[in-house]
Every structure is written in C-alpha cells, then in structure tokens.
Amino acid sequence: MNLSIVIPLLNEQESLPELHNWIVKVMTSHNFSYEILFIDDGSTDASWQTIEQLSNQNSNVKGIRFLKNYGKSQALHAGFAKAQGDVIITMDADLQDSPDEIPELYNLIIKENYDLISGWKKKRYDSVLFKNFPSKLFNWAARKTSGVKLNDFNCGLKAYKNEVIKNIEVSGEMHRYIPVLAKNAGYSKIGEKVVIHQARKYGNSKFGMSRFINGFLDLITIWFLSKFGKRPMHLFGALGVLMFVIGLLAAGSIGFMKLWKLYHHEPAILVTNNPWFYIALTTMIIGTQLFLAGFLGEIILRTKNNEERYKISKIIE
C-alpha cells in the first residue's frame, strides 16, 4: 500500500465528507493505493456516524473511535499503530490542510529518501494573537532546544516513512514535537516543505491557552528526555552528589572552626545556633533526595509497563 492518511478529529462532522472526496480525487488521479484512517477523539457531534457512512461508500476508509477526548497525541498514536502504508501522511480534519500537497510529500519520502517531511504554513489564516504568535514562540524555542531546524513544528500536515512512526512514542501533547522524537530515535534526514494553509471553513479552532502552556511544559519534558531520558541518574545523581558534598564540606568547616576556637580558648557559639549549619544540613538533605530521585528513575525505566493510555469503543476495519 502506498499511503496511509491519518486524520485525528474532534467535532468535525461538516468538513469530513468534503475532505474525504478531496483526498479520493487526489488518490485516484495519481493511482495511489491508500487507506484513510479517521480517529474520532471523543466527538460529541455526528462525526462518527459520518465516518461510518463514508466507510460504507469507500472500503478504503477506516475509523477508530475513542470513548472520550484523550487528545491529539493519543489519536495519532492509535492511528500510527494501525497504519499500513509505505508512507504515512498526517493532516487535520478542518480543511485547513490541502490534500493536493500529498503527492509531492510522498515523492519526497520515496524518491528523495527523507525519513520525515514537515509542512510549513508560511502564510497563515489564523488569529495573529492567539495562534500565530504562540506558534512562532513555540517554533523558536523548539529549534533552540532540539537542534531540529524547522520553521513550523506544529503543522499537522506531515509525511513519514512507515518505520519512523512505528519507532516513536507519541504521548501527552508531544504531537507538536514529532520531528524531535524522530531525531532522538535516530532518524536524521528530516526536511520541510512549504504548504498551503487555508482559512477554517467549518466549526471553531480547538486551540486554547491551556495548549499554549502545555506545549511549553512538553518542550521542557522532551528536552529532558532527549538528554537524560535513558539515564536520569546522570542528571539527578550528579546534582545530588555535588550538593551533598558541598553541604558536607560546609558542615565540616563549621565543626572544624568550632573545635579550633575551643582549642584556642576563644568564644564560640553553639553549632546549632549557627544559621550556616542548617543551610549546610539542608543542602545535604536535598542532595540525598536528588540522588534518590535519579536512582528511582533508573528503577522505573527498567520496570515500566506499557499501560493502556486510551479506550477505543469502535473500530472500522
């Protein structure tokens, strides 16, 4: 199969028939073998019924329905697990991504041997204050933190080799940083293509301030995981040992100065009345806690289980 088109969605009933017909037109004109995977992330409108109708009309349409809203990353995770195409295309269901971009994205993966191609919405039709500005801030921070030189990490229109999506773990709000996850997994040939961005035709944007905050928190998480995810002891253990040694030396110097003054019959305050003693003691305690955090992190890494992160109520094969 040439293409798997993975489309996460939430309350996009009106746009689904038009999006489906547009994709089918592109697939037919280029003689692609394909599947369309709609992942209904807990829609409360008639999105799932629409997907069922489309599946009855077109056997290439498949669907996954979540019991409730788990988030875009979980929807992509479920779609990636089911995808069978040589190239996987992800796109949003709101008609802001153009299916006409798919053939060129496919050729970049197959003919140019890219591992991943990320879309770049150079000209956007979103709110400048609530979407464009936060997006630019995200992209700048992600470039500086990850070293992946992309202009638009958050573009939903991306193309992947099948092996890439089978070897990355998308969780939390990490869908924004899939190129970084791919790089951390060892896939270095990552490219970017300017794509058409269209104004939203139906419904409302699902972007809110909570996603703005969560995105930055996930960026910190992905930085930490890329640096110390496989070796937490290297960070927490090193910091813990450093702080413990500093505290121990400080406490030792306080004790030494006390004994020195007593030996020379000089006035000296009680060690327990010296505020620096408590600072040194606190530093030793924090150092011990950091060391234990690293130790526990190592244990968790070796014993973690693959816990189910979402519940699926229906599947259309």
Give a nutshell description of this structure.
This protein has 317 residues and is an alpha/beta fold.
Detailed description of the structure:
Strands 7-5-6-4-1-2-3-8 form an 8-stranded mixed β-sheet, with helices on both faces. The model has no long low-confidence stretch (mean pLDDT 85). It has helices at 16-29, 47-57, 72-82, 102-110, 128-146, 162-165, 178-184, 209-228, 232-263, 275-303; strands at residues 3-9, 34-40, 61-66, 87-90, 116-120, 158-161, 190-194, 312-316. α5 (128-146) runs parallel beside α8 and α9 packs antiparallel against α10. With 317 residues, it is of the alpha/beta class. The protein starts with a strand and ends with a strand. α2 links the parallel β2 (34-40) and β3 (61-66).
Structural class: alpha/beta
Count of individual beta strands = 8
Query: Counting H and I runs of at least 4 residues, what is the number of helices?
Result: 10
| Spatial strand order of the main sheet | 7-5-6-4-1-2-3-8
- Radius of gyration from CA coordinates: 26 Å
Low-confidence stretches: none
The biggest beta sheet is recorded as:
8 strands, mixed
The share of residues in extended strands comes to: 5-15%
Q: Give helix and strand order, one letter per element, not per position.
A: EHEHEHEHEHEHHEHHHE
Cα shape? elongated
- The average pLDDT is 85
Helix content: 40-55%
- Span between termini: 15 Å
Features:
alpha/beta, 14% strand, 317 residues, 10 helices, 49% helix, 8-stranded mixed beta sheet
SSE diagram, text form:
Blueprint: E1 3-9, H1 16-29, E2 34-40, H2 47-57, E3 61-66, H3 72-82, E4 87-90, H4 102-110, E5 116-120, H5 128-146, E6 158-161, H6 162-165, H7 178-184, E7 190-194, H8 209-228, H9 232-263, H10 275-303, E8 312-316
Parallel strand pairs: 1-2, 1-4, 2-3, 5-7
Antiparallel strand pairs: 3-8, 4-6, 5-6
Helix pairs in contact: 5-8, 9-10
